[in-house]
Amino acid sequence: MIKYIVLSLFIQSMALADWAPLSVAPYEILSMVDTIDVDKKGLYTITSEASMRVLNEQGRNTLVLKKIPFLPESTKITVIRASSITDGVETMVDLKTVRIEAAKSPEGGLAAYKDVVIPFTNLKVGSTITYRFVEKKTKQLIPGHFSVEYNYGMSVPEAGGHLTVKSAIPIFFAMSDPWKNLEIQNIKENEKFVLRVKQKSSLYKLPIEFGPIIRKENATRIQISSINNWRDYLKSFAGKYEKILEVKKLPASYQKIADLAKSANSVEEKINIVTSELASIMTYSGDWTTFEKMFVPRPLNEVEKLKTGDCKDFSIATVAILRNLGISAEVALTHRKSPSAQLGMYTIDPLDLNLVLQDAFNHAIVKVKNGQSIYWVDPTNIVSNASTPFSDITGSYALEVSTNATGLERIPYPSMGQNSIRVVKNYNIREDNTADTTSSFRFTGVFAKAVLEIAHSQNKEVSKKILMAFNRTDPKDAQGNYTGVNFNSRISTELKGVEKASGDRVLEAKDSKLYFSAPLSFTLNGLTVFNRTKRITDMYTEGASEDNTVLKVDGYDFVGFQEGCTILTPWFTVERAFIKTQTGFEVRDQSKFFDAELKAEDINSDKFSTHLSDIFYDCAATQTVEVVKLQPGQSLSTRLKDYSAKKAKELMEVSGPTSITSARHAYHITENLLSQNPKDKDALIQKLRAIRRVGYKSNLIDSKEYYQASDSILKVLLADYPNDTTVLTQRVWSAYFQKNPVDMTIHFQKLYPLAPKNYEFYTLGGAIAEEMKRNEVALGSYLKAFQLAENPRQKASSSVDIAGILINKGEIDKGIAYYKQAISLYPENTWTQGNLMSMLSNLKRYDEAIQLGETIMKENPYGMAKKSLAEAYRGKALEYYKNGRQTTAADLKSEAGEKLLRDVEAYIGKGLSYYPACGKCLVSMAAVYRIRASLHGDKDYAMKAKTYYDKANQEGEISKDVTLMSSREIDVILGTRSPAGKATLDMNVNYSNYSEVDLQR
């Protein structure tokens, strides 16, 4: 049991996801037994006995001088016994060698902590140490208050332990036990309140992932207190703070700050002046040399005189000055998130918001009330921003130090607009392919804080490099100058100004072509913390934010349809558009992060990982774009000659593997048209269609956010064109795609009397009838659509629709005929061919499926077609094997049997040549080698079988349960496992009896 959480970050080279493996732990707690006796004053005595084992050299170096920290003013430590055991030999510690040494003071202050140091000898990896000591508490901050917290397996592995608390005063507890490791007994015994906790099994749960939020389901913990109401606690504690604030006159320098702030117009401005001026005259330096000073600020006059203090001193001074200005302010206590080089910010949720724990807080701030508004102000920072709480305290719980407070409050996360980047960057490209750039920018929240904080904590030159990165100027090549930027300011509400830079290399010549560098937002770098490994804990992201940046390039135009990217998710959006302008082109970027906390189940979802991949592939691919220099007299209308709503509509009719790319091109066209005329009805219609298509990722991932974006456009169109049939048609399609049968029916009934009865109408009608399970009506509508189709592409689409209805009705051959008709009408749509191939395989018409698949491989070998073809070859192999066993190859040991296995291997091998990750194919190939190995007792065949089974489990994502029996059979042949009741494989058993079922396991 560890009384204090110390997330031991000795994992230097590990991927940041999952629980830490045992191999990284320095030592293991074999047993820890604590008995705590609490008296009526809340003072207590702990008798503790621990046994630990050294796991590696780091653990050896840690335990050789075992340190027990304590504060002499309030605690006394007595070591009773200590020894080490190495190779069965116990070496006692001479208690005369136990030392009390000054502990290392916390960074930024002085403390009176001491360490009891137990010097163990004769240690090596594998040694164990045991020690027993008594800890006696002699002073409490609040009389009658006792509290303690135990966390199990959160720092090092813990094999077991016992905790017993015997209290003369009532005690309350809260616990989290997600792995059912604890056994609890809560009773009254001999007039004492007794709590017994037994750890039943070994536990090691240290998360090693970035920004973990440790919730109840992520940790085994127990918190114990004699008070379960913060109001009762504050009756005594708040008075200590109010007594300090009862001054008739502010110290002189504080009064000077108050006078300066009086002229400010708003409460926010006054707060910022107070905290920034206070930061300019005070230096952080804590004084924790007495028990009282650890929890209570020093007197105001002393703080003002020394010009130093910790968070309590900064906060009490701020409250005093604000009250002098007539502003309602109180000191508040909170838990500042712990920074870690490996994990970023990590947070631990409280178990019970009412349970009073003396160590619940590690930071003091200020709570300001102004009418209905509440400001959470952290004056300890070197920069100030009253409007936006800093990210290391947002989301944490806070306690107002006042008798009016009723309990804990949660500090809110900032809204998206409070953490923002807005940049407009103009490029003037020189003949040497470098650019002179002018960037007008405005940063708020964390972005303004990042620049100004570095300016004060390091220097202005370093902060300018950060500023250049936000502005997408390469600090390696370019030199930047700034106007309107006050790097000396300590107020980080916003940072705005103009950056003029020269020397940034933005063009690259390659193969007689020019390419413009359009980097993505610097903020997207944060997405690199995600990886493919399953996440264990929820993640803290430091807050919602947005980045709106426009890159304006004069004198050049991009080549072709630069589709940009559109990634819309519940967690973030990333959008990039390339827009032609009168003088060149623009790259318009917008990225948003919606939440400060991300759930592990969301991060682990297919939807999250798919959209994340889209950023790294689709969006990243747009960072280099081919451009040409504009020629004199080249007008915008000339450059937009291929941009029309009609062209976008044609692209939206493209089917098959290129349909997504075509939809992206259509979307790009509409973005450019709408940049000229935002009310262009036809462009808006094609845009909402395109965004629905662009949002398709797979049948397993919903496109909800894309449908919502489409509906927002539709809402505008319906307001402007309430009776336009093209708009009303899209309303019906919207309900169809979102599986809303009620709206779909209502909207279609309104459309029916108004719409022209053309191809589009009957296609829509067929889709609705099919969705409503009215197949005969759907078939009639699709047949009518086929008759009215205006081109082969439309006829092919109707043929596929008709085929689907016929096959559902059981008219298989008719359906296949319509599929083949669609293929002949529009052979470019190899998706139709792929769907037919898969269908033929399901019908066991493998030769037809293979013939069709081989044609697709020559024309457009896309992924799903490769998989379908591989499975068709496997199906052919199984059928061939079954027929062969029934005719010429009844005995697999015969020559005909050997030939049968070779032919089966060839069919499966052909399939795997198209799609190596075909899991079922890998299992069947493994089975071929397993059968051969069993027939001949051949270990080489057995090893090949094992290799294919391993590939099936890993690359083919086949569960090990499917291949378990066969894998055991392989182990018997290899000699790594003995069959039940036998020492070796009996080769006299007739293994020639394998059926086609054996090729599937």
UniProtKB/TrEMBL annotation:
Keyword Signal assigned: yes
Residue ranges annotated for the DUF3857 domain, each copy included: 41-151
Repeat (TPR) residue spans along the chain: 796-829
Domain Transglutaminase-like: 261-376
Entry coiled-coil feature ranges: none
Keywords: Signal, TPR repeat
Signal peptide: 1-17
PANTHER family assigned: CELL DIVISION CYCLE 16,23,27 (PTHR12558), CELL DIVISION CYCLE PROTEIN 27 HOMOLOG (PTHR12558:SF13)
Name the record gives this protein: Uncharacterized protein
